[in-house]
Write a structure and sequence with these properties.
The protein has about 300 residues and is α/β, with parallel strands linked by helices. It contains nine helices and eleven strands. Helix 1 packs parallel to helix 2, helix 1 packs across helix 9 and helix 8 packs antiparallel against helix 9.
C-alpha cells in the first residue's frame, strides 16, 4: 500500500477529490496534515474519498501553519460524520508531554503513529490500538523496527530533491527505490511527500522559471549500482528570461518540453488523468494557474504509483 503525505492545501485537496472519482484500483491511502482550521473543503475531500472507498489518515496534532488543538480537529471531523483514522505525529518540534497527551486523548480508539524522530524510543511503547506505525527514516531502519514491533510498519521518505531555484532542476532526478523494496524488507507499505517535498511553506511566489515535474517508474536499469525498480522524476523547465513577468508564457514553454518528451523520447510514462489534462492544456493553449499545475503533478504521482502497486 502507498501512503502519500499531503498538507491539506487547496490544490492538494482538489487532487485527492479528483483521484477519488477516477476508475482505477486505488492502492493508496492518503495521510493528510491539516495546516489550517478544518474547513468545508477539507470535510468535502474526506467525504469524497469515503465515496471512493478510501478512509484517509488525518494528522490531528500538527504544528504547522494555522493548526488547531487536536481536540478541535477531532471534534470537527467527528461532528461532520466522515470516516477517517486519526494519526498522532512525533517530531523534534513536539514535546513528549504533548505527544502523550494526544495519545491519552485517543485511548481506546484505533489510531496511527507517525514517528519522525526516533531518538526517544519511549514513543514506541504502549502500542495498544495502534493500527500502523509510519516511520520517517531509511528503509533499513524501518525494516528493523518492523522486526521488533508488534504492529505493521510503513517507511516514509522525502524523495523529492527540491531545489531553491526552479532553474536548478536537471532533466531527471532519482526519487525512491522503496517501491521495489518495501515488501522484501517486511514493511506493509511506503510513503512520500509526492513532488512537493517535506519542507512546508504557506505558498510560493513569482519565479523566473516555471518547472513541471512528471514522476515515472523505471525497472531493470542497466547500472549494477541502481535498484531494479525505482521512482524517478522528470523535470521540464522554462527558459530563464530574467523576469518574473508572463507566468503563462513560462508555463507553455515548460509544457511544450513535456509534450515533446512524451511524443519523442519516452513511452514508459503511466497514462493518468493528470497526463490527459496536461495534453488538453497544450491543445487548448490554456493556462490554469500554477496551483492547478502543481495539483496535476501531485495527482500524476499518486495515480502512477497506485497503478503500479495494483499490478505487481
Amino acid at each position: 500500500m502507498y501512503f502519500p503525505i499531503l498538507r491539506g492545501k487547496q490544490f492538494e485537496l482538489i487532487a485527492l477529490r479528483e483521484l477519488a472519482k477516477l476508475e482505477f484500483e486505488k492502492s493508496f491511502r492518503p495521510v493528510i496534515e491539516p495546516v489550517k482550521t478544518i474547513s468545508n473543503p477539507f470535510i468535502k475531500t474526506i467525504a469524497e474519498l469515503n465515496a471512493g472507498s478510501i478512509t484517509p489518515i488525518v494528522i490531528v496534532n500538527s504544528e504547522l501553519g494555522e493548526e488547531e488543538p487536536f481536540q478541535g480537529v477531532m471534534h470537527s471531523l467527528l461532528q461532520a460524520s466522515v470516516e477517517f483514522e486519526p494519526c498522532i505525529v512525533f517530531d523534534s518540534y513536539h514535546s513528549l508531554q504533548d505527544f502523550n497527551q494526544a495519545r491519552e486523548f485517543l485511548r481506546g480508539k484505533p489510531y496511527v503513529l507517525y514517528i519522525k524522530d526516533i531518538s526517544d524510543e519511549s514513543v514506541f511503547e504502549d502500542l495498544d490500538n495502534v493500527s500502523v506505525v509510519l516511520l520517517e527514516d531509511k528503509p533499513n531502519i524501518a525494516s528493523q523496527a518492523a522486526s521488533s514491533l508488534p504492529v505493521p510498519v510503513v517507511v516514509v521518505e522525502d524523495g523529492f530533491d527540491k531545489k531553491i531555484k526552479n532553474a536548478d532542476y536537471p532533466k531527471v532526478t532519482s526519487f525512491s527505490s522503496a517501491i521495489g523494496e518495501y515488501r522484501s524488507l517486511g514493511l506493509v507499505g511506503f510513503g512520500d511527500y509526492t513532488i512537493t517535498g517535506n519542507l512546508f511553506s504557506e505558498g510560493g511566489g513569482p519565479a523566473y522559471v516555471v518547472a513541471l515535474h512528471l514522476s515515472e517508474i523505471v525497472e531493470s536499469r542497466k547500472s549494477i549500482f541502481s535498484p531494479r525498480t525505482q521512482i524517478i522524476v522528470n523535470h521540464f523547465c522554462s527558459e530563464n528570461n530574467g523576469s518574473y513577468a508572463d507566468p503563462a508564457g513560462k508555463f507553455f514553454d515548460a509544457l511544450e518540453k513535456l509534450i515533446e518528451f512524451l511524443e519523442k523520447e519516452n513511452s514508459n510514462i503511466t497514462e493518468t488523468y493528470a497526463l490527459s489534462e496536461f495534453k488538453k492544456l497544450y491543445e487548448s493553449n490554456h493556462f490554469p494557474g500554477l496551483g492547478a499545475v502543481k495539483k496535476l503533478a501531485v495527482s500524476h504521482h499518486i495515480e502512477t504509483i497506485s497503478k503500479y502497486i495494483a499490478k505487481v
